[in-house]
Amino acid sequence: MFAIDRARMAENDETDATAGAPSAATRASPLERLASFRFAYGAIFAFLVAYAFSVEGVERLLFQHFSDVTEVAVRVDPADGPVADQIHARIAERIAGSRWVRYGDVRVRPLVVAADGHTAIFAGIPIPLLPRDTEDLGEHLLPATVAHVDVSVPHNSLLANLILVSYAAMLVTVLAVYTRRLTDREQAALEALTLTRDNLAGRAEQIESELGSVRQRLGELEPENELYAEEVDVLGEERSALEELLEEATEDLSSKEAEIEELRHQVKRTNKGRSSREDDLLERRFRTLYKNLEVDEHAISDLVALRDESLKLRAEEAIKRLSDEPEQAVVRRKLGGLPPHLSIFELAFAGKGRIYYTKGTARRFRILSVGAKNTQKADLDYLARLPKGT
């Protein structure tokens, strides 16, 4: 009877160990963990290379565009007036009035020379190099040719910043998705190890119970029965083997828990870096576009915390109106209940949105905070703590 029980328990042990043991695919090797960091470094390197080559590509496209524009501008008729003045006026109208130059901060410097190849008619905007006494030689200056067009996109320009922001958003998205996939995979491996540990623990308890039953039976039988002693020894060996497996599973589980915690820290650091990057980009954007406004760091953080892009656009629309057309801004009221040294006004946007501002020191207005109806109490508490001279 005991031999039959021993065979049945051995078969169950083999089945449970096969079903519950984690496969090699669920265990992340050190090379796989290193590969996750290599992916992040590669993504950052690709981001930098793509940004640099994109700026260079935009410069080449704009060079072709402004070369064509300049070629058209130098085709003038001497009968319409002085050649140099006509060329100056036409180039200034087509280049200085271009949206790439006005809004994208692109730098364009064409060089136009006369037919003799030595007399410079136009070099940059708006510096004339042709002496006035050569205006009568207009017919001899034609046909004027475009010797060179220098087109550059500075890295602090709006166009370069738009390219940088686009690639940065793509980089953060890719890293977030990749980190989420790693977290999900490690979570699945952790669940498999937890299930294995539970199975082994349950099996150990079952063996312990069966071992107790066998010992009780052996105590009732003759001590010289070697068969019973063999059963006890086998069960003791099985117990030791299962205890070793349980210890291995516990160690693997602790290792996986540490890896999961590290991945969570990485996700938090990625989100924190993204928020800081958004604050810097938004602050630079406001400082560049809205010359009549001072924007506090607290207000920048409030705008980033809105998260809803449509709500952000409505808030920036109200801020732009306050900067460019303050008489058209929808001022809700002057805030009451604040310390006497504070004179703060409330500007409405998007129904329940609120922008709190006051008179600036270096510029016309100063944006103090941005919030909504559900954050009004916290916003007013913050405003009430502002020091004198705000």
Would you give an account of this structure?
It is a single chain. This protein is an alpha+beta fold. The protein has 10 helices and 8 strands. Helices cover 63% and strands 12% of the residues. It is elongated. It has helices at residues 2-20, 30-73, 83-96, 99-102, 138-141, 158-220, 226-289, 297-306, 309-324, 376-384, and strands spanning 107-113, 120-123, 145-152, 293-295, 331-334, 345-349, 353-359, 365-371. Strand 7 and strand 8 (365-371) form a beta hairpin. The strands form 2 sheets. A 5-stranded mixed sheet has the order 4-8-7-6-5. It folds into 2 domains: 1-287, no CATH class; 290-384, YaeB-like fold (2-Layer Sandwich), CATH 3.30.2310.20.
Largest sheet: 5 strands, mixed
Q: What structural class do you assign from the helix and strand content?
A: alpha+beta
Helix content: 55-70%
Mean pLDDT over the residues: 76
Poorly predicted ranges (pLDDT <50, ≥5 residues)?
A: 1-11, 14-28, 125-137
Tally of alpha and pi helices: 10
Number of structural units classed as domains = 2
Q: Give the beta-strand count.
A: 8
Radius of gyration: 38 Å
Proportion in β-strands:
5-15%
**CA(first)-CA(last) distance:** 92 Å
Output the strand order for the largest sheet.
Answer: 4-8-7-6-5
Order of helices and strands: HHHHEEHEHHEHHEEEEH
What best-fitting shape do the alpha-carbon axes yield?
elongated
